[in-house]
Amino acid sequence: MTTVSDNSLKSHVAKMVDKCFLTVPTKRTDESGFLAAPLKKSLAKEYTKQSSDHTLYAIKELEGLRRNAVGRVLDRNEASLEIIYKYYDQLGSLEKQIPSVGYQIPFNWMSAFDKTGIFSSQHNITHNSLAFEKMCVLFNVAAMMSQVAGNQDLDIDDGLKLSMKYFQLASGTFQFIKDHVVSVIPQGPTPDFTQDTLDALVALMLAQAQEVCFMKAAKGIIFTLH
User: Fold this and answer.
1) Residue 123 in this model has a pLDDT that exceeds 60
2) What is the DSSP string of 141-185?
3) The CA-based dihedral angle spanning residues 60, 80, 112, 34, taken in that order and rounded to the nearest 10 degrees
4) Does residue 186 carry a pLDDT above 90?
């Protein structure tokens, strides 16, 4: 019967846990400010000047949040997640304050995946809908979760825990997008919003969370062999 030395086993397990993860790129958009202009005349018809000015001021603040959250390349860390979350939450507040009918705000977003890659179809789309903007921002939340997960130090326990946590959260968020995106974009979605792509992303993120779980267990094996 063949026996394996402790050193050989530790070397074998170490190689198994030395992995690189696949992360999802964020979607890109036109970062120029355009929220206030199309709303100004419409708001003036329905609100007093004071109320209209207050709402426009809030919208201009929202434009600043948008530029900060989706108009630039963000670092792969939890602080970046908070920046995107903050804009997403403010969109929800704005959606409650103004009716969707009658307000034409063109949101243009590009696919997260490069047109030279394996996905090929329509690579940008414009919708006059806050719901569409929210869905695109939520995709970036999930994408950033995957990037934060993949950017952890897997040599330490806290890094393993955070990586597993954010891969699981990314999987759940992509699942939510898959379940609701058809009601927002019924036809002609960009490649990153197709059901097949979202199915793949849900499965990939979950598989990588499970792999991190294995890595954590495997490192425990190495520790016990010392």
Assistant:
1) yes
2) HHHHHHHHHHTS-TTSHHHHHHHHHHHHHHHHHHHHHHHHHHHH-
3) 10
4) no
